[in-house]
Amino acid sequence: SDGVCPFCYIGKRELENALARFEQRDSVRVVWKSFELDPDAPDERGVDTYRMLMEKYGMTREQVLERTRSVRERAASLGLNYHFDKAIVGSSFQPHRLLQFAKSKGLGGAAKERLFKAYFTEGKHLANPTTLAALGVEIGLPAAEVSALLRSDAFSREVRADEQEACQLRVTGVPFFAFDRRLSVSGAQSEETFLEALRQVWTSRGT
Prior knowledge:
By secondary structure, the protein is mainly alpha-helical. It has nine helices and two strands; from the N terminus they run H-H-H-H-H-H-H-H-E-E-H.
């Protein structure tokens, strides 16, 4: 998934809701993998999501607002508050490095949630080192280690490895969910779809 993808945050919450109902949820381990929707994006485009879509599709702001309304409403139905007008559009590579570091500390899930909220709800600039450092410390990462990470290229290789794995799996868009390498679900599907996938894969493991 990508921390700047609105459907990835929705998919995360739908999966979590499914896991809450899954009978064997204590046996499930969720691993968040890196994927950049726009690997060539600059650190900051200088526009919000609405302006970016206006320029990309040649639409008015009113048309973009209407086009994204269903996404905002679905997010809201899951308790997620999207503020596309606050989003600072740009590269997601640096937050992916922070995610990889957090994963090495057992805090991958906490990092993913915090990065999503920071981007979609709070309008924080995820490519900004100061912002990332604060978010890392907030979820429990050592401040000195986060600062060292952001001054280096550490965990870049891990990001690229995830992206190469995505290519091998022929993933062209996110969110993309691979269940035990036995079943995949593409897109921000419903809680019921994820629950069925979990049960199906769990059953197949016993055969």
